[in-house]
Amino acid sequence: MVDETTETSTSGCGSLILEMGALSQLTGDPTYEYVAIRALRKLWSMRSSLNLLGTTLDVVTGDWIEYSAGIGAGVDSFYEYLFKAHILFGKEEFWRMFHSAYLAVLVGDIAAANSSHREFFHVWEKFGVLPERYLLDHQMLHPTEKYYPLRPELAESTFYLYQATKDSWYLKVGESIVNSLNLYTKVEGGFASVRDVTTMQLEDHQHSFFLAETCKYLYLLFDDSFLVDRNYIFTTEGHPLPVLRDWHDRLPESYISTNWSFAQSEKQGRRSSAMSLQVCPANDNQQVESACHITDARADHRCFTDEECGVDSTTCRRRSCSMAGYCGLWLLV
Questions:
Q1: Coiled-coil annotation: which residues (predicted)?
Q2: Among 60, 92, 126, 288, which residue is least crowded by beta carbons within 10 Å?
């Protein structure tokens, strides 16, 4: 569009892999996953030397607009999706990204999460709902961001911490949240965002995430039978995706058993490949080492960048790292 902004958030361009990856798995079309991973890798390549990312960037120039780093709105789901994508698809690349980010932003510890959660719930009790921004260091409300748009984060955190600890205190927190929502935000036809938490003035607006996330996590907090004996990953919009073995990362076809050759030894035949033997198959199975062959950096042929891939023993061509994270002779589309 002519007047469309080219600015987007880190979450906006880095939180696509769950939905697009699932779509590729369901349709058999790898395009959706390919473009999502491409955007994710580009974003990750823009991180600072401290493994931190900015908050907003220009999608045309590829430059950061807002350099400040954090785990709040506009960037939170980026880190969330790295970890969830690793669980859903089994790709080690996502785990490596998340682990680096984890060390940089210091999140994920239950004890620390519990402490932060109690701070936020204290603010909720103080005002009746949670203001968009509160200055904990000064114990004061932000002068301009006094609104509460029915955000789900506190309910979601309560749900996850209850699942992790089974501490009944979180059920009481959930009950308090439900009571406050009914008392302060319920209107005819739905629930309304709070314009100012000091006056509880409402505005005629209900975000879609209220039903998709806030209500859903509160419901699951009190009835988690939906999750019993099942594994799900929730997208950042609260939509459940099943964790299926068939969706997990698999070796490319070039590494499956039907493509193995057999090398004879004095005792018995053993499965091997031209790659592992450094043998060029063009030499009529003679045990001659390929002069051009350079092994991949890892024995399982996984990779993060092209530099981790070697030179193919059969064709003497440089191997490259695929979007799925494996070294091979990949065709660029």
A1: none
A2: 60
- Which residue ranges in the chain fall short of pLDDT 50? 251-289, 332-333
What contacts 198, CB < 8 A, 6 or more positions away?
127, 141, 146
Closest CA to 174 of 202, 208, 140, 214: 214
Q: What is the DSSP string of 108-142?
A: --HHHHHHHHHHHHHHHHHHSS--S-EETTTTEE-
Whole-angstrom Cα Rg for the chain: 25
Measured distance CA(274)–CA(292) in Å, rounded: 13
**66: three-class secondary structure by DSSP:** strand
Catalogue the E-assigned strands of 123-275.
134-135, 140-141, 186-187, 190-191, 193-196, 201-203, 232-234, 240-242, 261-263, 270-272
Nearest Cα to Cα of residue 116 among 74, 84, 53, 158:
158
- Under a CB-based contact definition with an 8 Å cutoff, are residues 221 and 171 in contact? yes
CA-CA distance, 15 to 108, in Å (whole number)?
18
Give the sign of the dihedral formed by CA 75, CA 79, CA 82, CA 83: negative
Q: What is the pLDDT of residues 198-233, one digit of tens each?
A: 999 999 999 999 999 999 999 999 998 888 888 889
**Containing H/E element for 32?**
helix 31-45
The answer to whether 158 is annotated as binding is no
